[in-house]
Amino acid sequence: MQALDRYVYPHRLLHWLVAGAVLLSLASGLTLGFLGFDGTVDLIGKTLTNVLYASHKTLGVLILLLMTLRVITRLTFVVPDYMPPLNRFERVASATVHHLLYLALIVMPLIGWTATASGGFPVEFFFWQLPGFIDKDEQLSEQLFMLHGWLGWTILGLVVLHVTGAMFHWKIKRDNVMKRMSLFD
Ligand code: HEM
Ligand code: HEM
Question: Which CATH number fits domain 9-181: 1.10.3470, 1.20.810, 1.25.10, 1.10.10?
């Protein structure tokens, strides 16, 4: 029997969908965080500002859904072997960053959702408005948005470490790590 040399296709597809959505949500979130509502309106007008908020929230909720599927595909299907095996440092470093990314990408949308709902703002997902599940509490909302901001920088840092590691394996070590996640041959 031939050994599995890459993750199953659904898991690889989910990786790249989440990667795209995370980059877009960081870019839109940081723009909104830096400029605030009024600053964004001054720059791009009210209509586009509302579209940017709605798109950011939609992307965030989408990440929560895709990450839930991803946990299922990760736990259900066989994980390929490393060829050649990773050394101890690589194993510990990659497992730590991967686990932290999984955790952060599930907690982050939940914080964004709760911060938005407790601030009395709509939780938009495409053209729907999702339930808030929490009463209005401006102080809580402010604290959760602060946490949302810090976690945003943490995710950005983890992504930089992760992509640096991936590039090292792909271009310098030239082992099979990139192939494990690639959608192409
Ligand atoms: C925001 C962007 C990204 C996030 C959140 C992310 C997240 C993750 C996570 C959590 C894993 C572990 C998969 C698992 O074991 O189930 C993983 C694996 C992987 N990622 Fe990413 N990733 C991102 C972007 C990228 C980019 C841009 C590249 C390539 C340059 C890349 C290359 C890889 C590779 C090669 C693996 C397989 C590692 C292995 O298990 O051997 N990722 N990614
Ligand atoms: C993984 C998913 C998400 C990521 C990576 C993300 C990232 C970010 C970042 C980096 C900021 C800027 C924070 C600051 O500088 O203060 C931000 C702001 C914001 N996020 Fe998210 N977010 C996600 C999910 C969500 C969700 C699900 C919602 C709501 C349903 C949401 C609502 C908001 C709002 C309303 C702001 C603007 C806050 C302000 O004006 O200070 N986010 N997000």
Answer: 1.20.810
